[in-house]
Amino acid sequence: MINNVAKTLLSCVDKTMPMFASDMYLDIEVSPKVKEIFCEIQNLMNGKTSKHLISPISSRFLQMNVVACRLMECMDFLTVYYYGYLTEEEKTKHRFVLTVFTEACIRLFVTSCCNMYK
User: C-alpha distances in angstroms, 28 versus 32, 51, 62, 106?
Assistant: First the structure.
C-alpha cells in the first residue's frame, strides 16, 4: 500500500534524480578507499564534519528531499572529487557547466517536492 502511495506522489517528479543520487551514493560510499578520499577532501576544504551521502530508498518518497539536500551540501566536495577524473580538455570545456547543471537538477527536484506538500 505504501509503495503505491509513494509511486503516485512521485509520479510528477523527474525520475532521474533518484537514479542520480543512487549512482553518487554507490560511487562514493561503497568503496572504503573512495570514502576515505572523499572525507579527506571535505577536511581539506574546511568541512566542519565529514558528511556522508545518503542512499535513496524507493519506498520512502519523503526521504528524497533529505537526499537532495545532502547532495547540495556536498556539491563543492563532489565537484573537487570528480574534477580529477576529467581530461584537460574536458576540464576547460565543462568546468562550470557540470556544477551549474547538477545544482539545477537538485534544486528542481527539491522545488517539485516542496510543491507536492502545498
Answer: 8, 11, 23, 18
Task: Please give the Cα distance from 27 to 36 (Å, whole number).
Answer: 12
**Average of pLDDT values for 77-91?**
78
Angle, CA of 33, 39 and 40, to the nearest 5°: 90
- Share above pLDDT 70 across residues of the chain, in percent, rounded to a whole number: 62
What is the band of 118 on the pLDDT scale with cuts at 50, 70, 90? low
Is residue 113 within 8 A of residue 13, CB to CB? The reply is yes
Burial class, 67, CB count within 10 angstroms (exposed 0-12 / middle 13-18 / buried 19+):
buried
Residues 62, 42: Cα–Cα separation, whole Å:
27
- The SS3 assignment for 48 reads coil
Report phi then psi at 46, rounded to 5.
65, 35
Quote the radius of gyration of the chain (alpha carbons, Å).
15
